[in-house]
Records
---
Amino acid sequence: MLHLQSNVTIRRGHLRRRDFLKVIPAAAAAAGTLSWQDVMAANAPALRKAGKACILLWMGGGPSQFETFDPKQGHTNGGETKTIQTAISGIEISENLPKIARSLGDLCLIRSMNGKEGQHPRATFLMHTGYLPSPAVKYPTLGSIVAKEIGDPASDLPSFVRVATGGAGNAVSAMGSAGILGVDYDPLTMANPGRPPENTSLSTGDERFGRRMRLLDRLQSDYAHQGGREEVADHQKIYAQAARLVMSPKMSGFDLDKEPQKIKEAYGSSPFAQGCLLARRLIETGVTFVEVSLGPWDTHQDNFNRTRTVCNQLDQPFTALIADLKSRGMLDSTLILWTGEFGRTPRINPNAGRDHFPRAFTSVLAGSGIRGGQVIGATDAGGEAVKDRPVSVNDLLRTVCHSLGIDADKQNMSSIGRPIRIVDGGEVVKEAFA
Amino acid sequence: MANRPFIALSGWLSFVAILVNGLAAGAEQPATIAAKVDQLLREEVPFANAAPKAPPRIDDERFLRRVSLDIIGRLPTPEEVTAFSLDPAADKRTTIVAKLLGDLRFGGNWGRYWRDVIMYRKSEERLQFLVGIPLEPYLAESFNSNKPWNQIATEFITVSGGANENGASGLIVAQQGQPEEIVGEVSRIFLGVQIQCAQCHDHPTDRWTREQFHQLAAFFPRIASRPNQQTREISIVATDVEPRQLFRRPMMNRGIGTLEHRMSDPKNPQSEGKLMQPVLFATGDNLPIGTPDAERRGSLAKWITEKENPYFAKAFVNRMWSELTGEGFYEPIDDIGPDRHATAPKALEYLAREFADTGYDLKWLFRVITATAMYQLPSSPRRGPEDPPMQHNVAQRLRADQVFDNLLLVLEASEPAPPPGVLGPAALRFAGPRRQFTTAFGYDPSTRRDEIQSSIPQALAMMNSPLIAGALRGTGNTMLARKLAAINDDSSLVQELYLRVLGREASQSELATCQQFVKEVNNRTEAFEDVLWGLINSAEFLHRS
């Protein structure tokens, strides 16, 4: 019960009894015979689900596992990268991530990620959807699935925000969209986390905007009566939602200037750092899924220097995000997934680079029931193959669903009437959970 | 809808006869065909509310708006609306269709449509820039020169060489030269048969087998879509000799073809797979193992496009009919296989056969469909599943490029150019406002229109985008500033804006609403900015009704 209590009180930092009642089935509430605690216990799954959120830190281009979470110091394949101790004895990571090393107690490293796709867009799409791209079916991306399954449909803000700060390049659309789930679950995409999303700033004052909206309503009635009834109704619904969004006090969730200087400094000032801070603010405001990208990790040349540069942009914001969520009591309900589309080759090529390598790489999980301070799976001495406990892309996605209380076997219908499972096959990585 | 007067068959046939008699010499044929299509259609799907008068027909203003948007993707100008309404000629609707089909924007509009048909199913996002660019002008020129549809299909299927020079490479390059994906698209687009469902396993509800799918893929094993390492340009290259193993890089793009196609064994994926002979499922036509690439693709193109093929003409007619009347004989429009049921199959068969007899004359088909009584019916929302089919022309959402072009047109704004110094491919990739609009408003034209939803980013773009906000100002060098200065009478100015933005005059009540609004605001410039904003942000502006 204590566990449930804490789960309830910390929900997005703002859960009130009123919010809480919304998720209780009417019958149970109407019965009136249940105590507050009984009701809570009876609805624990629904409650937990409602409070969950997810941040995907997308490492576009495919980060080198050797220079991040699976270094091979002493082996030829390891190159010049050295290892350092972490907060957890027995777990070592690359020297490029000293701050992350100190917060490893919150992280679960999966060093045995294992796939087949070695092309950026296809692998990016696969990691986001669990499927390869197909002309016949628009598979939905993870953020859209999560938004549909556990997002708050009554929220002023969209449930899925994508901050495409870097590393995405042309592959940003390979990250997928709502596809067969419909535009309600498409991401609100932002290129710059330091500015409000595109076209959300009014071009006139509030009052004049209100005047225009009222005029628009009156001008549409003739068309509505001449065969345009449905288009007008649909249009008015969307315009009302859009107006509610731009006028919503929750838009301040997008305003990083509202954040104390100390917190801003803790994250840092790079676009990725701003994206991480924005992710926390948005989750707090009621957004369910935020995707923030960092890159480019595609180090075919000069791998060691270039990876170090990107690691420098990763280390502080990632650590600050975990610490910030934790101190606000939000880490227990917020899942963090750190991953790219694949890893990089063990063999260092003649340009001191590493090429695409989907066969053995690392993804990282934290929060939302994940047991931190552990490593799952292992690669062999030279990082050439998974030695222990292979984890597939679908295993990983199924694990994400499990953590968020989503039924991965649920089927959605494609436009040609084919049922599409949220995740087709795969198994939950059970040992990831506490 | 229920009380709208409809006429009995005999009554409207005589009405059609009057229409036919009134036509200029040489134009009889499309109108005669159109009348026959209407007759067959109403035999199969009678009007639910038949009444002894002519079928309702939209007025001149609405006809001009509809046909302009349908053919050239643009609204008529206020001058064109007025001139058309005042024109006393009996055959003015046929004449305007002919004129619009001669306008170069016809090819631009439909070139973008077919570019979207192909590119919304591309297998890799980056290909948008490699393929979308040469594809669009190729299609535009093909439509403007009225290249027969069978020739266009043949060019898509048999294309070779550099993708930058030849837009017909678009379909193959969009599928990265992968035989299975190419044939899925060839079948879907040109035949309206969704055979790709049989790629992995036999489907209980479909008649085509996995083997037939792979026999179709066997027309394409020898080609590859190969990027040049330096220039990044993609070429379609065919191989008729056994390639060296050296070229095979399984995790990278398919850089070279194989001599024959093999169907993998799902129980034993490591095995070589079963050797497949090229066979076209729809007709049974086939070629022996060992046939060179040119003959494989050449034969396939011939068999797909010949008149005996039961699907080719029907697939195109069904799609165009759906785009122009709002409701396809088959829906979705690219799923017309033998296990699907058509609304009014005889009307479709007839029109498809006549289309094939013209030698697949694209403009002829536009002339016929726009001349039907069905096309000229008033528009209504999409019917519910229980309502009778084809009782109205159905309002259609404009496509992204059409919305954008019409904004530029009505606001007299020009499309921002790439910043100075941005040239060549980078200029083509320039993410200007058109791209923003395409992202927000774009949709796959093969999806059912009732599945395409409006979205919040669309509303935000119309409400707040800086391009629109700037262009609708009533001050400075803008369209509205010029009109405010030139037209002193408020009701005339309201009418000018209605004609310009919606292609029609304001009704009495709309005029009164606007006049009242201008009075209340008590600032003429601001008030008309708001009226213009309201018209541009209306559902009517975004639809072709």
---
Amino acid sequence: MTVVKMLALTLIGPKKEMEKVASLMVLSGGFQPLPLDILLKDKTIRSKITSTSDNPYDELLVKLASIWQAAGEKPPIPVPIQVSPRFSLEIASMQVNSAVRRLELWSSKKEELVEKLEKLEALLFLMRALKERGLNLKDLFDTKYLVPLFAKTSSENFRSLLDSSEEAPLYIESLLSRGGNTWFLGLTVPGYTEGAQKLLDSLYCKRFHMEDLQQELGENSEDSIVKRIDNLKRAINGLEKASSRLLDRNREFFVKLYSSIYTMQRVYELCRGRGELKDLYILSGWIPEDILERVRSDLEKMAPQTVMHVEEIKAMPYSGIKVPTLLKNLPLVSAFQEIVALYSLPSYGEIDPSFFVAVTFCLFFGFMFGDVGHGLMLFLIAVFLQKRKVVSRSMGIVLKSAGASSVLFGFLYGSVFGVEGIIHPLWISPMEDMGDLLAFSIGIGVSIMTLGMTLNMITQYRARDFGRLLFDGRGLAGTFLYLSLAALGYATLKGIVLPGPKWVYWVLPVLLFVVILLRDILARVVLRERSKEKEKLGLYVFEVFHNLLSFMSNTASFVRLAAFALNHVGLSLAVMMLSDMVRNLPGGWILKGTLLVVGNLLIVGLEGLIVFIQTLRLEYYEFFGKFYRGEGRAFRPVTFEGKDLLRNTRRTIK
Amino acid sequence: MSFFSLGERVSAGVFSHVLYAKLLKDEEMWQILMCDDVPEILEQLAKTLGYKDAGKFIRPEDEGRVQLESRLKIIPLEQSKTFLRTMRGKYKHFLVAWIKRYEASALKRTLRYLMTRRGNRENLRMWLLSLGDTSLPFDLLLSSRDFSDAFEALKGTIYEKPLKEPLKRLASGEENMFHVEMAIDTTTMTNLFDAAYALPYLERRSVLKIIGLYVDLTNVMWIYRGLRFYDLTPEQRLAQLLPRRYKFTRSALRALARSSDVDDFWGNLETSVYGNLFEHPYSKSDISFERDCKRAIREAARRVFRAGRVDFATVIAYLTLLEYEIGDLCTIIEDVRYDYDRRQAALYLIRPLIPEGEIK
């Protein structure tokens, strides 16, 4: 039941060790980096340290992806994997570069061939289109008073071009539409050539200049152009197949390399806050004390020149930054951490109430919902819901604990499905011993309130605030006042005669009340303490009265424990009576059975939910209100998405 | 299909009515506008029904403003995805096209990052992850060294064809994202309009009241920008328009594109089918013109929503209203950041607001 001690870790070492250190810290699963610009308040030091944003693995990742792209495939979806400690940037670069060197050559060659093919195909289309119109290329090349524009664009853009060309001295004629593209011939006047070019550019038209086409045509006939096109297509196809073959032969290796590089890219990216000072790197962050030694020994092996600086900081001297909280509890208790976190995580250094919540939650729930049958049903429902992943593991454990506690209290009350008398009560019967049940619930209330105030005193002791510890309404004075009032109330109700003169029992609470009222003055005079927080007098007096009233209201609130226990019996009785009433109707036994099943399910579902809410209320309001502040920030170590990776890696590091 | 999925559409419509009740009241919007800083905005939002969770997990030590804006902008996407799960057939197809707009905006943001290399790439990556399933290889895009790499990464996606030439231009040294962004917008909006057009008659009519207006006003905005900022010729203005139109006729768009200057443009717009949307076109500033366009679309969505039907169109109307509300919230966050005069700032919100939030 502790908040794990958190240490501020700063690593300084030569840049060549940076990669190994970053990898180790991420894979350790227990490092939350702190940006250096937050950590370094001193502007002079900060100005000398640079933060780098380049990631050397970016380039490798893209280069490697080009292997799939060249083969006409999509690159695989990268996943973080376990990377060998020997894997480094140099090795990765070497492997990637040797793999893609040939590919880059093929790719540039292919690009060249595709460009050539596009031009030849355009030339062929133009020749054929002109031939159909009884013209030839020479006529076009010799045009004097008009400027011909031959280009290709997407069919969608061609429609826009047709539409917009009506606003300009430009005539457009479609020559061929194929595969979503349109080849067209435009004619414009010499004065509008520039405007036409702009228009074509805005619609991403690829223009083929007449001079280039004329040069390409040379003395070639249509047949020889067709032959050249076929040859080019064959060559391009060959290059594509070569890329596919390369990928097929080494697919497994490439996929693994791709994932390794992706993993290392993430390692670099996640530890971005690092700083650099000449040839040194600096990396700072939080680390839990319990993994420090493991990290230290790994670091000594992997990065011997890196220096570790560790210090414990209880409160950061910078606004907005808090030491993060990591809770460590026994497996059963850790499930109740979620109940605590629902309210708020404890601040670093604050008491972790998870253990008390685990105990009191079961106590309250069982007290209000004590029934062997219903508790068992709740337990089984919780098992089912957890198995079907409807509820989280921790919520499943909480529900199962609540069910088990109900079963236990069911035996204590002698209640099975709301029927008392089937088994003998080991303690009391709620319906018959109503007074005792109420008295016990109040007794539990007094104990919980006292526990809350005791925990508050521990917190004040840790904070070295002795004034509040001794004289506050939730400190020692408050606890004595509360207990003396509780004892007085109990004695009066029970008619017990207290020893000694009566006035002492009335004067003591008044004295304690005055002590609470004069808390700050007494702390200054008796303990010579300076007030840490200036509080307005009026507000403080109001707070004291509020505390006094809350003693009464919070204690009375625990009456609900008994009330809900009775309510449970009453509700179960109602279901029984209803089922008895329908027994004599036609099909009565079926009706009775149905009513019993539905009624009991309703009790477990509806009443169980209400009791759950009431339990939370008692925890959060009555108990936490006495000592707990919360507002902690969870410890968020840098990790990958895949948790299996971390588990595997930890095993390897060990 | 349409009949068998009636129950799903009605329940989605009812659900959108429930969510509509969570949208901000005018008074709440006014209170948020009056905040002094982001933590106070977070505090105000936490008090509202619709955004009480928006500020959760935003740590003050982080850049609260950026985080809050990112968080808010993701809400319409999350809600659209909720509706997507219940839809089938043409309705699903439309919602997919609707959701693709968010993917498009993420793509634009990623390409902008590649161009400027400014900002935190890890934050961008986290934001992209929060978009959920996507057909775009954002990991590869973020790792691209240049726009050629980016194009290689986009191969096989719906953006391969429209972005081929614009990205080639960027790779060869073009210094602005104008053509790329236009190509992305054209692709997504054309798909959206086509998907709306494919809906069954009654719902198509209602949905097109919003989407059609959106397409028409986008064309108007693009003509205006071409005239005002980029000095494009009339034929260039026409060439860059979306290949779809709703109430505008070809000749009306042609007349707008032919405008000789801004005054001529206002005159042509006033006589067009949308003339009544702009009260005093002659005194318009660029920012108020854009606001009026958005207000018109918001008003159209409100009318569709208030028609009282509980169907697919109601869902789209609600999502539109939500998007514009979040647009306003992001504007307010900026207003607060630069400490603009709030009464003045209120004039530029999409939602018409007057002091204290009383409805105009």
---
Amino acid sequence: MTARDTTMPSTQAKADAQAHALRSAAALVIFETDSERINDEHLRVAAAARFLGVDEAAVRMLLASGLVPAVDTPEGPALAYHDAAALGLHSRLGSSVPELGLSMMMRFARQPEQALLVPLRWSFSVRCPKLPGAGAELRVPGAGAIIVPNAAPDRASRTGSRTDSLTGWSLPGNAGEPASLDGSISTHGVGHRILNTAANALYDQILADVTSQRLRFQWVSVHGRRDPLARWHEGRVDCVCLAAVLASELARLGMETRIESGRILGVLDAQHTWVSVRDEDGAWKRFDPLLQAHCWRHWGSDQPYGALFRGAITNALIGWPGRDAAVVTCQDGRISDVEHQFLAWRVAKAE
Amino acid sequence: MNFTELVAAVLGRDISPHSPQTTMTDLGITSKELVILLASMEHEQGCVIDFDVLAGLSTIESFERLLDSSRRGS
């Protein structure tokens, strides 16, 4: 028997095991609607295999099983990107980009609560590949974070008509060219806890639903996010859809709410959206059962990690008010997101 | 394997012309590519990079330092 012959059975066995895990995951996935799938990116076999961290043979077996909705492309069958992401998350293979990304993103939460509340100092760098004609600005973040640009650029409100309805810092540069802004961020946590009884019951319900898979955490495309309530009724949500639905639910309880969008500081620049609520003591508090569910997924419900997402602001997750991105432009009174990259790295614990 | 070699092997990119102070953003490496890169580093080193270390990474130099310290520790 040649060396090639001896390696084949183990390669085949590996692909079989991966295909089995993906077929099992398919039973848990709530797949995209046809409309979402048409508008989604399509991953052919090689790209899907790289994204899922499996052998191409495993993807071929999965597609042949008929358990997943394949997209016919001129080059052959493909998986919709967000269907593939959901398969990865439910597979528990540990090799897919969604699983690895979630695992790395959540590492910030695996610290004693006090470590997530102490003041920290970060450096940041925002890069915009193409500055819009109307200019762009980095918005002022919400509670728990103070941004200080290095070069003290004009506040956007002073830049004439370009972005005069905004209140952040203009990205210096010429329209159509790359632009950047560097500076520092001081962050601190606030150890709030939700007091309102009905809000706490809602938090517990969502935590239980996500943990038990009655409500599936899956990535949702921009197209799918246009109808968060529909996604909720289908039983699948991402952070954006869940925040929108929870804002409605909390409002029905008579509470004032606001959506916030932010990012976990660090090299990965993991973005996140949540709802904040004005509690009965008058304080605005983050209401984020999804992050606690992620903590339980990774470290178990018997560990203390994640409890502070029931109200607290943490020093590694900064937020901006509303659904808009951190970098926006304003034209004819209409604010829209600007494509950008945001890199932050910790430099010190503040004195 | 140093960081430049790792990036070439995992992402198929040549970052050797760039200075050590070049950030991942400057290199145009996306979050998803970083996830794959970090997972490869962890796989190669057989350890999990904790948040304290992740939070300080930004430049080629910082990644090289991380690889160096792992080698010294092993």
---
Amino acid sequence: MNLSKLLAAALAATLAPVGAHAARDAQADAQAVAGDLAPTALVSNAGKTLRDNPDQQPVSFSWAIEADTKLTPAKPFVSDSREFWTNVDALDLAKGFRFQTTAPGAVIRISPTTSVGSKAAIAPGDISLAIDGRQLPATALTRTATSAQLKAAGLDFAEGTLAFRIDPAEGSGRVALTAKLAAGDYLIHVTEPESATVAKLSAISDTAFTGGDQEARLQLFDGANALPIKRMNGILTAPDGRAFDVDFHTDGKGQALADFALPAKASDVPGLWELHAFVAAEQNGELVMRDVKSAFAVVAPIGRLGSSMQMHDSAQALSFDVPVKAAMGSRFEVRAVLYGTDVDGKQVPLAIGHAADWIDAGNGSVKLSFDHGLLKGANAPFELRQVELYDQSRLAKQEARWNGLPLAGQLDKPRRGTLAD
Amino acid sequence: MRRFLTALLLLSAPLLASAATGVAFVHGTGKQTDAYNDYWQSKMVNTVRDGLSNRANYVVINCDFEQYMWDSRAAGCLADQLTSFINSKNITDMVVITHSNGGNVMRWIMSNPTYDSRYPNIISKIRWVNALAPSSAGTPLADAVIAGNVFESALGWLLGYKSDAVRMQQVSWMAYYNSSYLYGTSGRPSLPKGFWAVVGTDVETAIWDGDSYCGGYSLNVGLEVTQAWLNSCSDGFLECSSQSAAGRVWFQDKSRMAGGEPLSHNQSRRACFGLEKILRDDI
């Protein structure tokens, strides 16, 4: 659990407007878990929708969850990297481009930049390799593939690309890659699948709000040991092409942290934002490099869940009115997992429900329904957990509450028995 | 076993006595206009059709899966063609066969039933999805294709790459979509219908080995080097962990293919080593 995020949530709760939302925030935040998401202020200028024609019809759908499903809160995804990229020009390649490898079997891709294209293609026979000053035989280039062969395999690399693996029998060390006939500029991509030198990068939240902030952690390991970081750099890129520098600071414990503000304007182009990091450390007196990136969503907060939900029990279905406050009109979706009480008195997940409808600016609601057939003999009390709100017009998660929201009038009166009671 | 019991349950249902069973072939990344010939090829499609009581009840999807999975040209197009198929053939029981990223597009529909009012009817007709080598957790190769040197280059390449589908299949992107929009992965709710993965575990390309030619030798050659980018269990394009990340594993290639052959990523969409007959017998 991230303490700073919980503290931020607690602080936000103290700053939130008084009234129903403040009461709800206090109650909901007390139950918050890592991964929960809740906007503290809404905006009414979220920019254009990212869908051609959002469906205007209300739609609801629910289904049983398989009995052996174990639901767990999402943890921040940690990207691993055993690779780096660099740009070199023909002169560098003709003289011999040098880099450090840490394990046998490095895979190398050489791609001409688009401005030069296939005219700068390098044939396998034009490559010479040396490791620690030892010239390698031509057979050291294994599994060679051209851009045409890679394209046939489904990988659309730049025209003129050459990829190969250094024969693992040749070992690792200081590599000199020479191509005397090189012409133009090239992107060199080095991957070391067997390397124990691994960069790790994670963004703390998989979804962040425009105008808010994001935190990230960068580490470089040799096996289980954190390496002292010698150089590092960070860039945040938006789907619409904007780029922002990100400063990482080492904490003296083998990791680098960044805490950065996000712009107020959402991207008008669909897709995720990417945090790119470069990190280097010395190993055996040589600089080892890694590039790593992680993706997350940056969304404009235009809606939030209301204070509490109302449950209804009819002859056919159990339903829940979930209030939604919208700062601007959009198609909103609520999804949640229905829990019931099994014969042992334990709360178990029964079904998941989705419902979506257009809601204009102001207060609205979405009704989630669960057919009695989905209850599988479970008894009250029932609860909705893992309640999430989405802006479907912009593919933007707005709120996520792992432990759900209070059920109006139900919290203090759990009942047992069948639904017909 | 679970799959067998599910089938038994379905077979015992009175509804199925009058069910019109159909099969849909959903291709992977790429914009297809003749997926029957260009993607699946006739032997694959026609052998699978032999499992239908009415061989006319099939559809080969042709959509633009260079787009993000939710795009109207991807999932929207797929919903169009599946809805037309269901309506025109009165399909009540549909087996969907996907390959690669087609599994993600199908999973988008099954995980986001309210995104499009046509989705619930499609989901209700699905018996199960047979996902051949699905890219459920993305692939490092997508990262490799997209990535340039962000610290030394102008960033134009970030916008310029033409395939949003490839962009979406980068590993950290799929991690996000799996945790927020898609179901069936570990810790997440199950999908409304079964999603059964066929996992390719290796690539064999030897010029003297006839098995290497199934699906096209030239298409397999590039997978030899791409396999080196991945961990030790892969079909040359996807690691086994990605193929197994969503739904349930139906089988790994070597356990069911003739001669214990592996299925490269190219071969898992073709009539190779008896795969087509296993799919036929599953309908």
